[in-house]
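Quick one: structure tokens for this chain, please?
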Amino acid sequence: MREWFVLASEGAVLLIDSIAMAVIVLATLQACGACLRALGHPPSGHERRAIWLRYARWLVAGLTFQLAADIIETSTTDGWDAIARMAAVAAIRTALNWFLDRDLSDVRERDLA
């Protein structure tokens, strides 16, 4: 039973990490494209902010997927070294996610004011 659980969780981690990577790569390509288009005509501050806000939202989504994969991976990991390494990675991803989300909220509040 444990072998099946480990095998299923490894597949889930691979799938979720793949989704996270696709989200982050596509968002990065979209942001790069928007920046290249902006070289032709300098965008206003609002347009520039919109580019980075859209990118930040997608990064938050990608980090959230990665954190989900870390949680699943931790449930099947044996050994304290591996758990400590994954906990450190999860803490860093959570902190990045929190700061990005806070920045998004700050910008939204400024735009509404």
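Residues 11 and 17 are 10 Å apart (CA to CA).
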